[in-house]
Amino acid sequence: MATNQDRMANLLDQHLKGPEAFKLFRESLKRATDFLVCSLDETTIRLEDLDEHEMEKMDKAAELNTKLNEALGERDKVQQENRDLKSRLEMMQREISYTRDLKEQATKEKSRLESEQQVLLQKIIYFQMKQLKIVSRIDQKVPDEGQLHHITKFIIDTPEKESEREFWLTRQPPNTVVMFNLRSKQLYKLDMTFKHEWLSLCSTALPFPDRESFACTCCEGSVYVVTEKMLFEWKASDPNKLNSFQIQPAVSLVPDCSLCYWYGVNALALVPGDSNGIVYKIGLPCCSSTVSSELMPSLNIPRSSAAITDFMGTLYATGGLIQNSKTNECERYDTRTKAWVRSRSTCNPASHLTQIVVGEYLYSSSGESLERFDGTSWETVTEFPLSLGGGSVFCAYVSGSVWVFGTTASKQMIEYELQRQTCTVHTASHGPSGQGYSTILSMRL
Predict the structure, then answer these.
(1) CA-to-CA distance for 317 and 279, rounded, in angstroms?
(2) Which of 16, 40, 77, 170 has a 20 to 30 A CA-CA distance from 417?
(3) Residue 232: closest CA among 252, 249, 211
(4) Distance separating alpha carbons of residues 126 and 140, to the nearest angstrom
(5) Which residues pair with 316 in a beta bridge?
(6) Which band of pLDDT confidence, cut at 50, 70 and 90, is reported for residue 237?
(7) pTM of the predicted model, to two decimals?
(8) Contact 157, 313 (CB under 8 A)
(9) Are 393 and 376 contacting, i.e. CB atoms less than 8 angstroms apart?
(10) Span 5-57, pLDDT tens digits
């Protein structure tokens, strides 16, 4: 394509050739000028458009720059907050570490104080037991912690409440053997002299109904007798009166049931004697003509003819029959979990056990031998020179001896002296008839 310069050169050549050429030159120059003017206008418009576009870009750039500055400011603020939080976190970590050190020191101090408290408690128990003449060997000096081990094993099962612990420490031992005879409907006490006679405690017959299934226990100066629907209470302060109370709801009883006074909750605990492992808690008489009963958790090992005893505030269910076979299973009731848990088994399988707590030991007998439990294990104390078994037997404690009475030989009894560790067979010179309808207890009158 010919450029403008080529066109101008051609026009000049034509002009030099004549007037017509000049005229054409002028026209061509005008057209070229108009073209240049139009091109300049277009360029100007484009430049103006470009300026507006650039201005918009610059405005946007300025706006973005403002936002960037704001974001940088926020970033700096967040970074400062993070630094503050980090500083506070480090301070909290130092405080936690300091608190942890204090807690460890407090734990060590608590352990030390508990250890000292345990030693002091053992010494208190030791002196209390010497005062009550439970410890047969009295030393002139306070024994150390190792020597106190066997004396104070029972504190593991001592109730946690201070009032209950004080009760166990100040409890006086029984001094009388009592027989509750249902056939004659009278109470008798055993003359502890060489005669060993059963002497009447009340002058008249007590209004006790004829029942074959019953359970009996005592607490201090009171005797409690339970039938399916009634609770009877005899107090030494009023020996010729028998108080009666209706049990609601009624309980189920079969022969060979077992009843004990539960010191920890001030109530009666009853094992009916059947093979279902049921246990009842029966409230004590108050100001009403009725007493309440409730089912406790059943034994984990259901059995019949089991014995139930409160040993240092904890219930123990011992022995019994499992499908007519004697067992040596022993369970204790955990008041925290409210469930029966397995304890150490007795030395010999037995049923129809009789048990009594003397000092730090729970003594148990089926009429063949005498075993004792210290809260951790059972041991056989002695084998009897004659058998009092063949049915229910009864155990009592008085004058430093454990007495075991049989029902088949109603006038014979075995005395085991705790200090001398000897067995003596005695024969009562006089005894009430129908001892098979009796129960024998030891109590303090």
Answers:
(1) 10
(2) 170
(3) 211
(4) 12
(5) 309, 332
(6) confident
(7) 0.61
(8) yes
(9) no
(10) 666 666 556 555 556 666 776 777 778 787 787 877 777 777 777 767 777 77
